[in-house]
Amino acid sequence: MTPMDTSTATPDSAAGHPVVELDGIRMSFGGNVVLDDVTLPVRPGFTGLIGPNGAGKTTCLNVISGYLRPDQGDVRLGGRSVVGGSAHQIARLGVSRTFQTPRLIPHLSATENVLTGAGRHYRGGHLSELFGLPAARRDERRLRGQARDLLETFGLGEHPGRAASRFPIGSQKIIEVARALLNEPRLLLLDEPAAGLGAEDVDRLVTGLTDWAADRDAAVLIIEHDLELITRLCPAVAVLHFGRIIQSGAPADVLRDPVVVEAYLGADFAAGD
Ligand SMILES: Nc1ncnc2c1ncn2[C@@H]1O[C@H](COP(=O)(O)OP(=O)(O)O)[C@@H](O)[C@H]1O
Ligand SMILES: [Mg+2]
């Protein structure tokens, strides 16, 4: 196999079987069709999902992560249907997500907040926690180390003990990403992680995610309006418009497609490109 040229990869030609696959998803709310026949393979590495506000991007994440059950279609995780599974069950299969607005516990430290992502790998369980069994104590030490390493990865290792609420909003969003990575997800779903971030934080985010993904097979599906970030991170991008995927492929091609420009990007982008 030749090394993948990420500049020309499309979702269908990119390496690897899909980690998750949306297949013919239809989702409506009270008769309002929000996703219509959405088919989207998400392979290892980064996949971008873009589209105007209200296009249905967050709804896609909610369907994948089990927060919503689609009217029609299938969601396959590692080839296996997970439609009908609860959010909790799907999380246990290795799916992590962040939300458009950070959901940290404000008074807990950065490290403690990252640790709340531990659910899936806490082998000790409640009883050993209660009795302070050695296995649980070892787990906790290991997880604390991992939490601090993740904060370092994202350039936030300086104040691991500082309360989450005392970090700027951009850093809080990055702490939430670190939390989503603690349990070694095979699929990470990020909902506008760069919204509200300054240039420095965007760099932290991109560097941290790239470092994290480098030696892993995980897939990252990232919703984002920052098209520069999408172009930097994602060899493949799909465009959602009024609940339909209208185009997908390499960002360089997709962002030039007249249909995409018309639907989403507007004349300014086309002229300025
Ligand atoms: N739980 C819900 N109940 C009713 N309508 C919803 C619900 N969630 C989303 N919608 C509607 O679905 C459409 C797509 O929303 P969303 O997926 O949040 O779009 P995006 O993330 O692309 O901005 C919007 O019109 C929104 O109002
Ligand atoms: Mg959204």
From TrEMBL:
Keywords assigned: ATP-binding, Nucleotide-binding, Transport
Tree of life domain: Bacteria
Gene3D superfamilies assigned to the protein according to its UniProt record, in alphabetical order: P-loop containing nucleotide triphosphate hydrolases
Protein name as catalogued: ABC transporter ATP-binding protein
Keyword Transport carried by entry: yes
Gene Ontology CC annotations of this record: plasma membrane
GO molecular function ontology, one term from the record: ATP hydrolysis activity
Domain ABC transporter: 20-267
Listed Pfam families: ABC_tran, BCA_ABC_TP_C
